[in-house]
Amino acid sequence: MHIEKMEELFRQWLQEKNFLAVKKEMSRLPVQDVAEILNHLDAKNSLLAFRLLPKDGAAEVFSYLSDKIRVAFSQMIEEDELKSLVEDLFFDDKIDFLEEMPANVVKKILQTTPESERRLINQFLNYPEDSAGSIMTIEFVDLKADMTVAQALTHIRYTAPKKETIYTCYVIDQERHLLGVVSLKDLVVADPDTRIEDLMDKQVIAVKTHDDREFVSSLFKKYDLLSMPVVDQENRLVGIITIDDVMDVLEAENTEDIQRMGGISPTEESYISQSPFTMAKNRLFWLMALMISATFTGRIIQKFEDFLQNMVILAAFIPMLMDTGGNAGSQSSTMVIRGLALGEIKTRDVFRVVAKEFMVSVIVGLSLAGLNFLRLVVIEQVSTTISLVVSLTLVVTVIMAKIVGGLLPLLAKMVKIDPAIMASPLITTIVDAMALVVYFYIAGLFIKI
Amino acid sequence: MHIEKMEELFRQWLQEKNFLAVKKEMSRLPVQDVAEILNHLDAKNSLLAFRLLPKDGAAEVFSYLSDKIRVAFSQMIEEDELKSLVEDLFFDDKIDFLEEMPANVVKKILQTTPESERRLINQFLNYPEDSAGSIMTIEFVDLKADMTVAQALTHIRYTAPKKETIYTCYVIDQERHLLGVVSLKDLVVADPDTRIEDLMDKQVIAVKTHDDREFVSSLFKKYDLLSMPVVDQENRLVGIITIDDVMDVLEAENTEDIQRMGGISPTEESYISQSPFTMAKNRLFWLMALMISATFTGRIIQKFEDFLQNMVILAAFIPMLMDTGGNAGSQSSTMVIRGLALGEIKTRDVFRVVAKEFMVSVIVGLSLAGLNFLRLVVIEQVSTTISLVVSLTLVVTVIMAKIVGGLLPLLAKMVKIDPAIMASPLITTIVDAMALVVYFYIAGLFIKI
Question: Which of B291, B308, B353, B432 to mutate to test binding with chain A, by most A CBs within 10 Å of its CB?
């Protein structure tokens, strides 16, 4: 059944106080669907339904609820209930939750947390946003090198329910230095008497707590990992990152790139939940910056005002030249920005990119100019001179646009600016100015007034 | 060590015929790194190094090689060697490889394949591109409902080496109907005498062979899956999809969206490996279409030619108005396209989107116009009338641009067109025309000639 239909049913049942139906349906549905339904109910009904969940399921559903509804819950329920709920969460979900709660709620929850855990929580809350530390969890299986496979399996069996994953286990020494990894697959297949040190893979792919999460996700993609250890400066294991969180990182990073490329300050809030004021704020900076830059393009026209007054027909082709130049440049910058994000293009490829964009732009520019010349002369019956001026400008503009579009993201990367900024809006503004200068220059060569 | 340094070392060793060093280094490196190095060597050296790999590692490295180098290998090595190599591949890697090989190579390989497998391969090769069937594999663990946990674990232990994943097992009946799933975690924790049917989760999240791979990846994200069963019309299990392939799908779908949004026909080939002609082809269609559309914008200017001739100063503000309108519209379409791709926005949200864009555009439009008016009057010392005309146009354009930008992707989605097409290039062209009409209309109201 469609989830929207389900929401309707839930609303109806809750109104009729048919709690049995709600309870039954929630036990039948996957926790993610239950969370989605609760996210869409009003806070009061949502909490009503949430309280009907069995204790062990509640924490899981809670970890999938939206920030908005969780903040609402934390304001509606008693301190004790909130505390016991938070206790049942996986450690990384707990951190996520505390990060978005108002300071007084966090303080309340931490007050009665044992000293050792409180210290750990504070440590995790302090990892920089977008760092490996900020997405890791501590619920992993650690093994000792001198265990046998049989001992390891017993240990896993005993601790599994509290672990986020048991499929990759981490071998550490007394000081928690990371020695190796061993997969549950290897453990299951191996002879029970084999020692872990003989079975483990010593060549571990690990990250440091302060590594960027984008780097983390690129390693997951490259090495097809299900989880990855995070170590501190002394190579001591402090946590692991699991693939489900990496999937979220991957989407968030893609969203960030796409927003930057659209000339918007990136945000992780969803479209629907953002207020118009936040939205306006995220968009204004670039619009203003680009508006002011575009006035320089206007200056070029002003400079050629007399010329234009005598040849006002030239004005009619300005939009087409500007748009085509902008589009041609954006195509190139889009390709290069994406190539850089995927690691297919490196900064050392700069000459290769310029050479390629040049060749592409010659092919594209000539094709467009040819088509345009024919159209102007045959269909629009514009004079040959003007058709020639416009078409020549088109070729030059497309070539310049594509080289600039290919080059700027690479230059940005070299000076450690996010290449995504060098996308459509900025390229368009730059190329517009260039197109107009070329246009008036070529026109001046061919047309004497 | 950096992978580029490694490549240099490999080249040197191969030239010096120091095969021992190559062999030793390859056994130390992760297979993905070995593949990356081989991808960057010339085909002859690459094959030389490849042949130094142990037989069991060779297939794994092979599955990570680029298409280019694999085609080169298949032309350089003997039929027998190629065949034995292909035999060692996981089934989905085999299909991937056959898909990109020239027909004669495929024929050669299939000739000596046993009838049953050949039929299976042909079936897989026929699944539509971008379908669930095209990314699934057949190397999964299937269990019977009446097995005990102990029997299941023995079965898994015995078959594990040939399976892509053993962490989720699929329970089927005699006719291969999918009855449930059970995770290795549950098996390891459970009492050995428990029967699988009592342990398995009957509420299975599965897809059909012809479902879109984008839908598949959205399910993985939502339900935090590691693998997912694929069934035919009769609910018979035909394969599974694993998360490593889904990560690739996710990136490919994001790339596709980004390319569409940049006005490029999407391609899965990397920037570096595309020829300038392919690139030009992928870009020409949109450039031509948009160039022709932009001529309509030119027509608007032509229509107001006389007016413009008398008030040529108006021309100087055209680029700024066009650019700002285009940027404002692209921002909105970018946000809505991404929201739709992530499932945060549904088509039924259309009124909500329009209302939100209207509010945002009023805030943004007024801020920009205010700033612009001040700048024109105070800094540029333009007459109040013209400053007013330009600023008013700015407000109206921004409002229209944002509503059109927010609306078009939703309309596209409703009529089952990819919303990503309604991005920057198209929006810019549409908004440009609108901006000019508004500009001349408002100018006509305020300025009498």
Answer: B291
Q: Which amino acid is at A381?
A: Q
A288 token code pair = 């203003």
End-to-end CA distance of chain A: 73
Q: Please report where in the chains the tokens 């239950």 appear, as a residue.
A: A34
Which of B157, B280, B291 is nearest residue A188 as measured by Cβ atoms? B157
Q: CA-to-CA distance for B414 and B412, rounded, in angstroms?
A: 5
Rounded Cα gap, residues A439 and A393, in angstroms: 5
Could you give the CA distance from residue B418 to residue B426 in angstroms, rounded to a whole number? Answer: 13
Nearest to A280 among B32, B364, B433 (CB): B364
Whether A160 contacts B188, CB under 8 Å:
yes
Work out the widest C-alpha separation in chain A, in whole angstroms: 96
Q: Which CATH architecture has domain B3-126?
A: Alpha Horseshoe (1.25)
Measured between alpha carbons, how far is A211 from A230 in angstroms, rounded to an integer? 9
CB contacts of B320 in chain A (<8 Å) are 291, 294-295, 297-298
Q: Find out whether A322 and B301 touch, Cβ atoms under 8 Å.
A: no
Tell me: the pLDDT tens digits for B152-200? 999 999 898 888 899 999 999 999 999 999 999 999 999 999 999 999 9
Query: Does domain A142-259 fall into CATH 3.10.580.10?
Result: yes
**Structure tokens, B216:** 């598949």
Question: pLDDT tens digits, residue range B331-345?
Answer: 999 899 999 988 888
Q: Is the Cβ pair B290, A188 closer than 8 Å?
A: no
The full set of domain ranges for chain A reads 3-126, 142-259, 276-446
**Domain B276-446 class, CATH top level:** mainly alpha
Burial of residue B449 (CB within 10 Å: 0-12, 13-18, 19+) is exposed
